């Protein structure tokens, strides 16, 4: 009698294909939530997208995992040096310290707004939902995850909201990539 696998295997990431579909920007500052970043970066990589780090910091930026482990990431670009034509979508992970710094940074705020105006997908998690709501000037945006698509913002709460929104974000990236091809 064969034992059924209780946990289906996730699709393996082919490193040769990461970046074939395009690139997304992760807008972060010191203290960002690494678990939020990883949730979306892994889903995007499975879809063939490479994740690039955009930060007001110039060389390295530190984030924290749920286990309070500090992790350093190399900064690829500064928010003032990129725009919606540079990347296919924008991810803004949570983290109180990070989001406060991004709210104070004019280039970061303008980058989020430019992506919204360009109808590019913007995905915010945790504390970053507040940043997305403030920059977009939309009322009633609250939850653990929010997704800006085609000028509208969809926010959700609940047990699976982050995973569901991450999946919708990657789907939106894929549709945009297909439309561009």
From TrEMBL:
Coiled coil regions, renumbered to chain: none
Q: Could you read off the lineage of the organism from its UniProt record?
A: Bacteria, Pseudomonadati, Pseudomonadota, Alphaproteobacteria, Maricaulales
Protein name stated in the entry: DJ-1/PfpI domain-containing protein
Which residue numbers delimit the DJ-1/PfpI domain?
24-135
A Pfam family the protein falls into: DJ-1_PfpI
Matching InterPro entries, A to Z? Class_I_gatase-like, DJ-1/PfpI
């Amino acid at each position: 009698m064969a034992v059924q696998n209780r946990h289906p295997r996730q699709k393996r990431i082919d490193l040769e294909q990461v970046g074939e579909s395009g690139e997304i920007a992760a807008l972060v500052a010191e203290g960002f939530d690494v678990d939020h970043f990883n949730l979306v970066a892994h889903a995007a990589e499975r879809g063939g997208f490479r994740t690039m780090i955009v930060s007001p910091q110039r060389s390295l930026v530190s984030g924290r995992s749920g286990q309070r482990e500090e992790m350093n990431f190399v900064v690829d670009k500064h928010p003032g040096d990129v725009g919606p034509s540079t990347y296919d979508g924008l991810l803004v992970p949570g983290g109180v310290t990070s989001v406060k710094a991004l709210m104070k940074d004019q280039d970061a705020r303008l980058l989020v707004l430019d992506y919204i105006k360009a109808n590019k997908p913007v995905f915010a998690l945790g504390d970053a939902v507040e940043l997305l709501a403030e920059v977009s000037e939309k009322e009633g945006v609250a939850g653990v995850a929010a997704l800006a698509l085609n000028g509208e913002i969809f926010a959700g709460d609940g047990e699976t909201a982050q995973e569901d929104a991450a999946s919708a974000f990657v789907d939106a990236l894929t549709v945009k990539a297909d439309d561009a091809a």
